[in-house]
Write a structure and sequence with these properties.
With 288 residues, this protein is mostly helical. The protein has one domain. It has a two-stranded antiparallel ribbon with strand order 1-2. Helix 1 packs across helix 2, helix 1 packs antiparallel against helix 3 and helix 3 packs across helix 6. The chain starts with 8 loop residues before the first strand and ends in a 14-residue tail after the last helix.
Length: 288
Amino acid sequence: MFRSSEERVFQVSDPSTVHTAPSRDLSVRYILPFFVATFALSWGLLFAMLQYPEAMTRFFGELSVTHPAYMIATWSPGLVGIGLVWAATGFSGLRRFFGRLFDVRVPLVWWAFVLLALPLLKMLGALLNGTPVSELIVLDPLGQVVMITGFMLFLGPAEEFGWRGVALPLMQRTMAPVWAGVIVGFVWAFWHIPAFYLDGAPHTAWSLTPFLIGVTSVGVVMAVVFNKTRGNLLFAVLIHWQLNIAFWPEAQPWENYLNLALAVMLVWIHRDVMLHRDKAETTVVPAF
């Protein structure tokens, strides 16, 4: 992967005039604006939904995960991340940034892990909750399950253009991947808190502390996959989608503790990368 570069400066015929060309990649100074803008946009919308539910319902319909304000709030990390990439690198950089979705040149073992690990943990968590084996895959009503699963591909995973697309590689320029994964994972988990008080959101049925543990742990798992697959953004999208697929059974709170165990195991196995800053993937926008 190509390492980041600061903005390129060149002189024109008048030596006293200096022009700044679009940067090839985002600089580390974009970390704070990303977090501030993400929270301002999403929490601002969710605050309006909490404080003015009647007005929001009158203009946009009943509060639910399909409510326009809720969807924009959910997409805010991705929208902010994409906006920063465009502002810093232009349309050319934005094209290269999205190109990270199509890098499939990774070992098959990572494809298997991304597609199978979290579903299996959800099933194990459901078993620990007492769910019968016959109900480990949700198929009824099939049409609704398929529709929700398809919708979830476009809801939560869009966040990854920000969390893992921008925040994680920038954080890894300043610290080892394990700590960057923990911090970004915790911020990602903490960012969900308003949804626990919002009628119509699934979070209202869950306990907050196990959720924070579980989502932070998934953030570390994503950091391992990100660094072992050359900054593959498609895998971050797929892992996020696996958290919300309607075919998998309800596994709260056990899935959170299983995710923690998985994160610790992966960090130990890949400690050669996760504990050393010099081996981190730090590119937001590839050079080519």
